[in-house]
Write the structure tokens for this entry.
Amino acid sequence: MAYRTPRVALIVIMFLIAFSGCALAADEDPLQDFCVADNSSHSIINGFACKDPSSVKSDDFTFTGFRNPANATNATNGFVPTAATVQQLPGLNTLGLSILRSDFAPDGLNGPHVHPRASELFFVVQGKIEVGFVTSNNTLFSKTLEQGDVFIIPRGLVHFQHNIGGTAAVAFAVFNSQNSGVERLQNTLFGSGIPDVVLQKTFQLDMGTVDQLKKTFTP
């Protein structure tokens, strides 16, 4: 019987290590009822400084920017995001949550991108949208979603959404971070200042093509 104790202890330790990794996968838990972001503060912390609770208003917990659809017809790639992060909704500060409305024109595309600080729950409320993500071993998981369908995108993986329904589409994305961040692959690779020779060798392109891509995707 004595051999079982170390084995059980090892299992418990392994479970605690695994659970700790999951717990650290999103923003830290709040230490008070709320910490409304003080946008006038210049303090440099991992998040935003808290507003004096006596000055907090109901408006700090309210966002009305999703009421009206965005016109995605003439937008780049036929896609317009409307975000409710801590910058737009100060009451989200320290709560580990944010939300995005996505308006798609017919054939609209939210091209390959990454959210480095959050997993995403993608919920379609109108239209038909193809969504997918690519794992670290280069496996694609994709699905065509219709109204009421939900798709999960794990943190930090390349993913996309494409309106394939022929009419305008609307979806909401919920993130387990107050500021999920976004890196769009084309801008990250060709608009960030990576040396031309690195891009040329990596993608096996001629320098003229590299130069054209940098002109296209540099902000």
User: Anything to note?
Assistant: Residues 27-181 form a domain with the Jelly Rolls fold (CATH 2.60.120.10).
